[in-house]
Amino acid sequence: MANKLIEKKEAWKTICVFLIIVTLFSAVFHYAIVNLYPSRIYIGGLMWTPALAAIMTLKLKGRPIASLNWSWGKWKYIRMSYIIPALYALVCGLLVWSFSLGSMSNEESLLEWAKELGLIGIGTLSPTYVVIIGVVLLGTIGVIRAMATTLGEEIGWRGFFIYELRKVLSFTGVSLFSGIIWATWHWPIIVYYGDNIVLEMACFYVVIISMSFMMTYYTFKSNSLWPAVIFHAVSNVYIQKIFPPLTTKIEGSEHWLGENGIMFAIVTFGFGLLFWRKAVKENL
Which pTM was predicted? Predict the structure, then answer.
């Protein structure tokens, strides 16, 4: 009993050290994002601060970097970590179109998207082919590119942080606590780039905490940080890069669309609830 209390106390100390370091590192990039231009170039650096904090914490605790779960894990969890975020993005898009909260993009909009993707000049492409090629390119090359930055976050959040939390909290506690921290870590960006800050912040917290339940599930099931890296990258690409060009905003739809929109919050909450129930049932 005494040993367990000591272990839990040590785990909380490690958690605090990590959070202090990630806060200090992140503050530098948050300042740059808000005050220096072009601000977006600093977002990639910000996304690597959790990894730097995890590595520094490990060094301070005398633990090797190799102690993180670098193994690839089972392909089952890798596949599902691609499928699930692509699926909830699709559900989100279908609901937006079905309830007329946004309309499917017309031919002119799709041709503009084709120009952005560099598809103009390789022949005449129909809107259907533009969609297919765009989704394939972004869903593969785009995801691989996105992994370069999501890896930085996931080394810290899912590779290190949730395993420390697991020493002192249940699956529900780990997912909820890490989700709140992860969402709070983003708040300066939401404030800086947001329009309706209160609504967007509320939706964002729901989204991030819901994603935390899903990503924690796959991390613990696979004993690998890579499913979370892929999950995070796929979610970013589909929500930020694929579905916005396929959806045209209409009057009154601005609060429903995008990664900080109401619809995405509703859909991810539903998925998160399913994963929570699944984890509890499996005694994860």
Answer: 0.94
Is residue 53 very low, low, confident or very high in pLDDT (cuts 50, 70, 90)? very high
Domain count, the chain: 1
In a domain, 238, yes or no: yes
Helix axes 171-185, 197-222, angle to 10 degrees: 140
How far is the C-alpha of 275 from the C-alpha of 25, rounded, in Å? 32
Does the residue 32 lie in any domain? no
Report whether pLDDT(146) > 90.
Answer: yes
pLDDT value of residue 122 = 55
Could you give the CA distance from residue 238 to residue 244 in angstroms, rounded to a whole number?
9
162, part of any domain: yes
Where does residue 127 rank: exposed (0-12), middle (13-18), buried (19+ CB within 10 A)?
middle
Whether 15 maps to a domain, the answer reads: no
Q: Assign 68 to helix, strand or coil.
A: coil
Are 165 and 260 in contact by the 8 Å Cβ rule? The answer is no
Structural domain harbouring 263? 71-281
Q: How many CA atoms lie within 13 A of 212 on its CB side?
A: 24
pLDDT tops 90 at residue 147: yes
